[in-house]
Amino acid sequence: MMRQACTKEWLKGSDIGWPACTATTLNLKMKRLFTLLLAFACFHAFAAKPKHQYVRISTELGDCIVMLYKETPLHTANFIKLSKDHFYDGTLFHRVIKNFMIQGGDPDSRQAKPGALLGEGDVGYTIPAEFRDSLFHKKGVLAAARDNNPEKASSGCQFYLVQGKVFTEEQLSSVEEKRLKFRLPEYQREIYKTLGGAPHLDRNYTVFGEVVKGLELVDSVANLLTDPNDRPNKDIHMKITVLKRRQAKKLEKELLAANQLKP
User: Fold this and answer.
1) Which domains, and CATH codes, for the chain?
2) How far apart (Å, rounded) are the C-alpha atoms in residues 15 and 256?
3) How wide is the angle at C-alpha 220 spanned by C-alphas 159 and 226, nearest 5°?
4) Could you read off the pLDDT of 188-206 as tens digits, one per residue?
5) Which phi-psi region, left, alpha or beta, contains residue 105 (left: φ > 0; alpha: ψ -120 to 50)?
6) Strands (DSSP E) along 105-197, which ranges?
7) What is the spatial distance between Cα 147 and Cα 174, in angstroms, rounded to a whole number?
8) Best exposed site among 115, 171, 249, 259 by fewest CB in 10 Å?
9) Which of 51, 88, 47 is nearest to 68 (CA)?
10) Can you give the pTM of this predicted structure?
């Protein structure tokens, strides 16, 4: 049926009054506007980007999810690129020191023979250091390995996850005096005294992410038996994938509910 215009001419043959017809038209317009606003809100909610980028590190001992920091854009972008290129797939956690850290990302580790010394593989470039006072070596952080270059530039591919240990007030003071030459902020000291970490690395190696789910994987790998070169006796291969937008948003909803989402 064709819709008739609500006009005075049409109303001449109708028993509907002009005010009633006007109200009907306004109601239709309001319904359409509400529908459009609702559709826009749904589209915006679907299209909104997650606050952070995340990667999943998968091994035979379990998985963990790492949130990459926005404060370290060079390291984050590089890690995302390598992960999307499947660079890390099949590589090993080749250096493991209990109560300290687990290290991986050496491309030479893919086909390494048992007992072979690893840790020299790279991608042919380094990344400028991105030290931030607010980013420190608490347990579970992701940081970039490096050699002893004076600029403290990071390896283009090798990384480590901190297990660390819990420190006492006296031990932290000793680290500050003998290694750091500066005093740690009080909130960081509290974390080192409760959660633990590796404070002697602060502002010397770039921290660019942290485990937000599956922290037990770090402990599982760190507890492996190793050879004299700190290589695990049992090879632990990894696969690193970037979480898709929908996965990241679902994760952030969970983290927000648990009050664990970083701003």
Assistant:
1) 53-257 (2.40.100.10)
2) 58
3) 75
4) 999 999 999 999 999 999 9
5) left
6) 126-127, 141-144, 154-155, 159-162
7) 25
8) 259
9) 51
10) 0.82
DSSP 3-state of 125: coil
- The phi, psi pair for 59, rounded to 5°, reads -140, 175
b/e string for 81-110 if b means 16 or more Cβ within 10 A? ebbeeebbeebbbbbbebebbbbbbbbbbe
What Å distances lie between residue 92 and 41, 143, 192, CA to CA? Answer: 45, 16, 28
70 in Cβ contact with 123 (< 8 Å): no
Nearest Cα to Cα of residue 207 among 66, 87, 82:
66
Tens digit of each residue's pLDDT (9 = 90 or more) over 9-43:
444 555 545 555 565 665 666 666 666 666 544 44
> Which runs of E-coded beta strand occur in 78-176?
93-97, 101-104, 126-127, 141-144, 154-155, 159-162
Tell me the C-alpha distance between 176 and 174, whole Å: 5
Which of 209, 211, 207, 77 has its CA nearest to residue 131?
207
